[in-house]
Structures are given as structure tokens and as C-alpha cells.
Amino acid sequence: MKRSKLMFYIFILPALLIYTIFMLYPLVSSLGLSLFSWTGYGDKIFVGLDNFIKLFSMPQYSERFLGALKNNLLFFIYTIILQNMIALILAAFINIKKIRFAKFFRTIYFLPTILSIMIVGFLWTLIYNPLWGPLNIGLKAIGLESFAIPWLGKESTALISVSITNAWQYVGIPMMLFLAGMNSIPDELYEAASLDGANGIQQFFKITLPNIAPVMFILTTLVFVSNFSAFEIIYAMEGTLGAPNYATDILGTFFYRTSFGQRLGSPPDMGMGAAIATCMFVIILIGVFVLFKVYRNRNDEQ
Fold it and tell me: DSSP per residue over 198-214, as a string?
């Protein structure tokens, strides 16, 4: 018994050490730094909760924070709807028993996930180019010139365009999870439903969807955490200012501008940046708690 416990601690120690160095220590340091005024060099000045008071009371901070929070919520909603809808269709397509080249399709659909975010952002920026991008060229070719717009240059379409790119890159992960959930459903359920006269669509909504509900919960939680800590895809496609006119500004880009300076020559504010990061952590914590609460209540009702 003692030997098994010792082996357990030996195996878990490397992961715990990595987590402490790269996750726990930066988190605790950020919480402490939020109580100071610091430009990144020189002495730190203790200001207590002054950074948080400024963040929610001074217009230059509060307006941008609330705007970024709103965009983050929309970014999450767009991504989760697009990603889950496409992934569910792809998983159902691959799950068809007699489909040929299933492994090939599974690999192709998952391939964008392993690409660099910066590369994906650059490629989709080219696709969205209003003058010679293939999207607008294709729309004009089929007579839809009115839809050939500057997708990343309009405030009304910029965020949804970035969300499409984000959903496209990571659609392979929910697809694989949905596929695993579908493969775990006993064939007897579908056979019994067929004998009762249920068609394919009825079987999908009455058998498949209820059985993969736990997978949807996991995906919603993962997308929520990743979207509220996102930065790279916005940076790659719209820059740190969240162009156009802050229409794609999210908490990650707001944090970056504040911590390291909005533009060349502007002073950084590490203390205020740490306060923003702390608020991001609290928002993610509350969001995950609410999701778990909803999921547990749903299971209790069943």
C-alpha cells in the first residue's frame, strides 16, 4: 500500500511542478501585482484596490472594459454555435456506417487544429480581403456583388468573421468528441427505434442528441474558458486595438494594451493590466461554476 502511494506521488509530481511554475505562481503573482502601480521597471508603489476602482469608475478604463466584455460574450456565443453545429454535422456524416474513407475525412477535418493560430489568422485575412480575396471574388462570380463587403473592415461583420475563423480552426476537437460519444451509443437503441417506426431524423433527436449531451457540456466549458482568455486570433487578424473602432476588442487585447502600452511610446501599466487579468480570472471562474451548476441541476432532474 505504501509503495503504491509512493508511485502515485512520483508520477504526479512532474505535472504538479509544471502546473505550479507555469499556472499557479503566475496567477498568485498577478493577484499581488494588481495591488501595485508599476510600469514594468523601477519600484512598485502599493495602491491597494485603486487599480480596480479606476477600472470600474474612470471612463477610459470602464468603457473599454465593458465593451471588451460584451465582445467577449458575443465571441463566445458565435463560436459555440458555429463550432458545435458544424462539428455535429461532420461527426454525424463520418458516423454513417457505410461511408468510405472515414479515417481520411476525420484527419482532414481535424488538420486545422494543429496549425499555428498566426498562420490561420493570416490565411483568413487573405480570404476576407475585400479586393482580391477569394470570398468576395466568389460572391461576385455568382452574382452576389452586394454581399462582397470588407468583412474585417466593417464594425457589424468584423467580430462574426473572426469567430468563423476561430470556429473553423478548432472544429476538429468537438467533432472528435461528438464522434466518440456517438460510437459509444449501443446499436440496440437504434434497432429498437427502427422497429418502432422512427426515421433517421427522429433517431438523431431522440437518441443521439440526449446521449451526447455530456459532451456538449464539456465543449461549452472548454470554449468558454478558451474564448475568455483568447488573444492570438484577434491579434493576428485585427491587431491589439481590436479594429475596426474596437469592434473586435476583447478582454485579452484590452489587457495586452494596458499592460504593455497601447502604442509605441505610450507608458505600460502592469498594475492595471494585472487588475484586468484578475477580473478575467473571476469571470471565467464564475462562468465555469454556473455551467457546472446548470449541468448538475439538469442531471438531478433526470
Answer: --HHHHIIIIIHHHTHH
Per-residue pLDDT band for 117 (boundaries 50, 70, 90) equals very high
Domains of the chain: 74-249+278-301 (1.10.3720.10)
Positive or negative torsion for Cα 80, 86, 249, 275: positive
pLDDT digits (tens, 9 = 90+) for 198-252: 888 888 888 888 889 889 999 999 999 999 999 999 999 999 889 899 999 999 9
61: closest CA among 291, 271, 289?
A: 271
pLDDT in tens, 39-52: 888 888 899 899 99
Q: CA–CA separation, 43 vs 87, rounded Å?
A: 51
Contact 97, 179 (CB under 8 A): no
DSSP 257-287: HHHH-SSTTSPP-HHHHHHHHHHHHHHHHHH
User: Model's pTM, two decimal places?
Assistant: 0.89
Q: Would you give the end-to-end CA distance of the chain in angstroms?
A: 39
Grid coordinates representing 278 are 484578475
HSE at residue 219, side-chain half, CA atoms within 13 A, is 26
